[in-house]
Write a structure and sequence with these properties.
Largest sheet of chain A: 5 strands, parallel
Strand content of chain A: 15-25%
Protein name (chain A): FAD-dependent oxidoreductase
Oligomer: heterotrimer
Helix content of chain A: 25-40%
CATH topology of the largest domain in chain A: FAD/NAD(P)-binding domain
Organism (chain C): Streptomyces radicis
Number of helices of chain B: 9
CATH class of the largest domain in chain A: Alpha Beta
Structural class of chain B: alpha/beta
Keywords (chain A): Oxidoreductase
Radius of gyration of chain A: 23 Å
Largest interface: A-C, 44 and 41 residues
CATH class of the largest domain in chain B: Alpha Beta
Number of strands of chain B: 19
Number of domains of chain B: 2
Pfam families (chain A): Pyr_redox_2 (PF07992)
Shape of chain A: globular
GO molecular function (chain A): oxidoreductase activity
Chains: A alpha/beta (about 500), B alpha/beta (about 375), C mainly beta (about 100)
Number of domains of chain A: 3
Mean pLDDT of chain B: 93
Order of helices and strands of chain B: EHEEHEHEHEEHEEEEEHEEHEEHEEEH
Strand order of the largest sheet of chain B: 5-6-4-14-15-16-13-17
Distance between the termini of chain B: 44 Å
CATH superfamily of the largest domain in chain B: FAD/NAD(P)-binding domain
């Protein structure tokens, strides 16, 4: 802890974090790059050791960022701390931020760094699949679409033999084609929206021509593997005893209401659910930075055009500012790194900044069109029954939360959480938070607000930490920040 | 609001307001409960739910605790399951011979005051708590210490009051008091005026601000406390376990961070770890020094917890008065205004007795305990007793 | 992808599993056809892999006696012993060394 503070700590080494660390490092800042994964790449470029990028999108971008990072880490400019999770960030007055770290899992690394100090912090924390509970979704064999993908990309393991990929959004397509290419039978891709819709929005798709080409590629792959693509449809129930054996697929209208008489049953042993993504915002919230409801209805960090959060010294890039894919995240990360450098007194690369801002604006327009075409169906809560498990960790049912609302006056998510316990378990509401907010709002006949999401997104401990680690915190936690004697 | 309004407006939908509302309703009064936030949105939803007789010296607070225990068990006994009432018992442990001797002296005086307290020898401790650290010097077991889930207690007491005809309005902020001369005749809110026969200030750590609306001084201040919540565990801690030093800390007037271990399991398998006390106003930022000491204290008592993960940390602001006694009763400086608050970290437990006393006094019955030690105006008479 | 690399063996509830270098514990279990490896506290319902990226904690497993590890994150290793139910916490030794002060 006596090491002099870094100029910038970047949290997350996915597309945004890698780009931020590289941009800041190449601009002359001393950077710490903290990441839970064993290798840079994040979820998007998750790969096995020594992988060559087969099956990955835009691997050249990753390869280039990775080699630039290697040049920086070979010197002293960037310190990469893999296999570490940030469980808290604290700061006394104007002193540098202190990031408190814990190993990504027990025994993850022999070189545990318990804390890193930095004068500024770039949060590039990504996100994870957004989930809408349905009856039976807790059965083994039901997975998040991103989890199916991670298993494939990271371990070369196919999660099932006969799969259905369901939910909404373009991410369902690579999951389905990935499974099919790896030898699984994909019974159907079940898409709640009618995705032709977004191709019709000239501002969106045309703004990012690469995306349209990408989409055409997936469509061809689905055709090649004879995967049916069912639109305006949803998996509304999962069947099975000890594990998944089948799903019910129903036709839905634009609001998610079931169209009667169009039910079918598919025999499957794997269900991959994805309803867009939930950004990881615990550190943004813990630092007191502003948040708002993004285009896809998730809580996102509020940033200015240069990626500054509302708290000085905090920058946010990637999915945490709004889900929009890797290309957007890379541009945002790069801009965040550059802004941090400029704010630290480095010369402003005006042209490059303008170019990045324009690229981000285009990507945002595309993302907005995509979110508008793939909304969470307004009436999805009608698919639920009293007995449907809402919170997987604490096995809290829909009925229990509705009783808390109706009988006990729990109109807001925090009160419902404290009375009925959704979000109180291991995952601290990361999986059920959005659904809980939606269920309560639907019950009260109103829309989900940013305030609802904030109440469920507050996690002062951003990751579990052992009591032994807490007990070993230094005391007093930090010396006052005197000017460095060794800055020469 | 039709006619002349309710008999009683209760400001604050926390445990004190909820208990007061229920007992007043039961006594036949027409009650309206107001809160600017949701129910139990302040202190009540941010504690552990202690019903303790063990941590109190003989005196008015212990009398209130013993009354409250009786009310929880008897008057409210039929509803005990609704709020997970659990008579788990409390085990106080002493780490040194000196604190063991002090504890034995305390239990002697507590027994004389009617507390069920069993002295426990060092060698008997593992029979109570197999996971306790070796080397402790002795302890005391209090079968009467219990726990409730405080959010459920608040919500169900308010529901019972509603079922009895009370009105509960959340999201309504009291912005002023209606006056007729000195007399308080109702409340002014951001949703309109509500005339009432009496107004009860049950605003927890914000009770001082409500008193100010009436132009009277009520020195209730916030004291911050953190609680750590672990991962769900197989049964590890059977009782509420705390250190003998806890009793001294509770009564301390020191502003600096103080911690003493309080460790217990909940129905959901998690272990709750307290307690810390700091006078830092309403500062809600996470304090790592507090968490460090909570964790270190807990591991010292239960070494096996060292490898157990904390999933969550939360804080609450406990309302306290300079003499560490609550305020309960009418305010002679502003007739029609009543106060019930300042119970510090014991408010959940003491709420039952407080609610009953309040209802008795509001209906003109003789309270089960004399209210003189809890008089709201006592701080105006020079320096309070220590 | 990595199929040519040498495999190794670990066990789940005593039953041997084959894994490839770089695979997670969850991947090794999945390849062996094991979809659930713990029961929930409340309902005793079977659970296994869900989010796959360390967020949901559904895939908790005991690894070499260490309870509540995320199977999706922990790399499989030669000789690793996996079990579903968590072991009880260790009892403190009867010796007089520890002190609670």
């Amino acid at each position: 802890m006596n090491e002099r503070p870094f100029d910038l700590a970047v949290v997350g080494a996915g597309p945004a974090g890698l780009a931020a660390a590289v941009a800041a490092g190449e601009s002359g800042l001393r950077v710490a790059l903290v990441d839970a994964g064993p290798r840079p790449g994040g979820q998007f470029w998750r790969h096995a050791e020594g992988a060559d990028g087969a099956g990955h999108h835009d691997w050249e971008t990753f390869a280039s960022l990775r080699s630039r990072l290697r040049r920086l880490t070979a010197g002293t400019r960037v310190r990469h701390l893999p296999l570490h999770q940030v469980w808290a960030v604290d700061r006394a007055g104007d002193a540098p931020f202190t990031l408190r770290l814990t190993p990504a899992f027990d025994g993850a690394t022999d070189e545990v760094t318990p804390a890193v100090r930095a004068r500024a912090i770039a949060l590039c924390t990504g996100g994870y699949d957004r989930q809408l509970p349905v009856p039976g979704w807790t059965l083994p064999g039901v997975m998040a679409a991103g989890g199916v993908q991670a298993l494939l990309k990271g371990s070369g393991t196919v999660a099932g033999r006969r799969a259905v990929v369901a939910g909404t959004g373009p991410f369902l397509l690579p999951v389905a084609t990935g499974l099919a290419a790896a030898g699984a039978e994909v019974a159907a891709v079940v898409e709640a929206a009618r995705p032709a819709d977004w191709l019709r929005r000239p501002l969106g798709a045309a703004a990012v021509p690469g995306k349209a080409v990408e989409g055409a590629g997936y469509a061809a792959a689905l055709l090649r593997h004879r995967v049916p693509y069912l639109t305006r449809s949803a998996v509304t129930r999962v069947h099975g005893g000890d594990e998944v054996t089948a799903v019910t697929v129903e036709r839905v209208d634009g609001s998610g209401r079931v169209v009667p008489g169009r039910t079918r049953r598919l025999a499957v042993d794997l269900v991959a659910f994805g309803w867009g993504f939930t950004p990881s915002l615990e550190l943004v919230v813990a630092l007191g930075a502003g948040t708002e409801r993004g285009a896809d209805g998730s809580l996102v960090a509020t940033v200015d055009r240069a990626r500054r959060a509302t708290v000085p010294g905090v920058y946010v890039a990637g999915e945490a500012t709004g889900v929009g894919g890797a290309a957007k995240a890379v541009a945002e990360g790069e801009l965040a790194g550059l802004t941090a450098a400029v704010d630290a007194g480095r010369p402003a690369p005006t042209k490059r900044g303008r170019r990045l801002a324009a690229r981000i604006a285009r990507a945002e327009r595309f993302a907005e069109a995509m979110h508008a075409a793939h909304p969470v169906p307004e009436r999805w809560t009608e698919w639920l029954t009293e007995a449907t498990v809402l919170c997987r960790c604490e096995e809290v049912t829909v009925g229990a939360v509705e009783r808390a609302r109706e009988d006990l006056g729990a109109g807001d998510p925090r009160t419902a959480k404290l009375l009925a316990r959704p979000g109180m378990g291991w995952c601290q509401g990361r999986v059920c938070g959005f659904a809980t907010a939606a269920l309560l709002a639907a019950g009260a006949g109103r829309a989900v607000t940013a305030e609802d999401l904030r109440a469920l997104g507050k996690r002062p401990l951003a990751a579990p930490v052992t009591l032994g680690e807490l007990a070993a915190l230094p005391e007093p936690p930090d010396p006052p920040d005197f000017p460095d004697p060794d800055t020469a | 609001m039709s006619g002349r309004g309710p008999d009683v407006v209760v400001i604050g939908a926390g445990i004190i307001g909820a208990a007061g509302a229920w007992f007043a309703t039961r006594a036949g009064l027409r009650v309206t409960v107001l809160d600017r936030g949701p129910l139990a949105g302040g202190t009540s939803g941010r504690g552990e739910g202690n019903l303790l007789v063990s941590d109190k010296e003989p005196g008015p607070e212990l009398d209130l605790a013993l009354l409250s225990r009786r009310v929880w068990r008897e008057d409210l006994g039929e509803h005990a399951g609704l709020w997970e009432f659990d008579e788990k018992g409390g085990l106080v442990v002493a780490a040194t011979d000196a604190s063991a001797a002090g504890l034995a002296e305390l239990t002697r005086r507590q027994r004389a005051a009617g507390v069920d307290a069993v002295d426990v020898g060092a060698d008997e401790l593992p029979a109570y708590e197999p996971q306790l650290a070796p080397g402790l010097r002795g302890g005391a077991f209090y079968p009467g210490d219990a726990q409730v889930q405080p959010m459920l207690a608040v919500a169900h007491l308010l529901r019972l009051a509603r079922d009895g005809g009370a009105e509960v309005r959340t999201g309504v902020e009291v912005t002023g008091l209606l006056r007729d001369g000195d007399r308080v005749t109702g409340v002014r809110t951001d949703r309109g005026d509500i005339p009432a026969g009496n107004v009860v200030n049950a605003a927890g750590p914000w009770a001082g601000s409500v008193a100010e609306l009436a132009g009277v001084r009520l020195p209730v201040l916030p004291r911050r406390g953190f609680v750590l919540v672990t991962e769900p565990l197989p049964p590890t801690v059977r009782h509420k376990v705390y250190a003998a030093e806890y009793v001294g800390d509770v009564a301390s007037a020191d502003a600096a961070l103080q911690t003493s271990p309080v460790v217990e399991s909940t129905e959901s398998g998690t272990v709750l770890i307290g307690s810390s006390r700091e006078r830092v106003g309403f500062d809600g930022s996470l304090s790592l020094p507090a968490l460090k000491r909570l964790a270190a204290n807990a591991v010292a008592l239960f070494p096996a917890l060292a490898g157990v993960r904390a999933l969550r940390a939360y804080h609450g602001f406990r309302p306290y008065c300079p003499d560490h006694l609550p305020v309960i009763g009418p305010d002679p400086r502003a007739p029609g205004l009543w106060h019930a608050g300042g119970h510090e970290g014991a408010g959940i437990g003491l709420a039952a007795g407080t609610g009953l006393l309040l209802a008795q006094a509001l209906t003109g019955a003789t309270p089960a305990l004399g209210l003189a030690p809890f008089a709201p105006e006592r701080f105006d008479e020079g320096d309070p007793a220590p | 992808m990595t199929a040519e690399l040498p495999t190794f063996t670990l066990t789940f509830e005593g039953r041997p599993l084959t894994a490839r270098p770089g695979q997670s514990v969850a991947a090794a279990l999945t390849d062996a056809g094991i979809r659930a490896w713990r029961a929930t506290r409340g309902e005793g319902a079977p659970r296994g892999l869900f989010c796959g990226i360390g967020v949901c904690y559904d895939c908790l497993i005991t690894v070499d006696g260490r309870p509540a590890q995320r199977a999706c994150l922990v790399p499989a290793a030669e000789g690793m012993a996996l079990t579903g139910a968590p072991p009880p916490l260790p009892r403190p030794s009867g010796a007089d060394e520890g002190n609670a002060s």
